[in-house]
Design a protein that fits this description.
Blueprint: E1 3-6, H1 9-16, H2 20-36, E2 45-49, E3 52-59, E4 62-71, E5 75-83, H3 91-107
């Protein structure tokens, strides 16, 4: 079994700020991710670039994404959660995720 963890308390707070329906659906998606890990795949998860993946969260309140990476020891690290408003992930979001990934890896060596 895999474990889903937030890279920091601030990142957990981002997730907790989602509207209630999206947050509840997000928890269900995280449970599915814990059970299936890197075998989950589309339509639930998708590789977005260089070891970064997104989990798709949908509810009546909209669409959100959590971007994550895999770590040794069957750990899934949530790096960012946001409400999706456009078809593509904005470059600013990708830059922020890459920065957070670097900070996470630097802090866990």
């Amino acid at each position: 079994m895999w474990s889903v963890e937030f890279a920091s308390e601030a990142i957990k707070d981002e997730f907790l700020e989602l509207p209630t329906g999206l947050r509840q659906r997000g928890y269900k998606m995280f449970e599915l991710l814990e059970a299936r890990g890197n075998t989950l795949g589309e339509p639930y998860t998708k590789s977005i670039k260089d070891g970064l993946f997104e989990i798709r969260i949908k509810s009546d309140e909209g669409i959100a994404r959590s971007i994550y990476c895999y770590e040794i020891g069957k750990r899934i690290i949530i790096l960012l959660t946001f409400v999706k408003k456009t078809q593509k992930i904005p470059k600013s979001i990708l830059n922020l995720v890459e920065q957070r990934l670097k900070e996470f890896k630097d802090g866990n060596r």
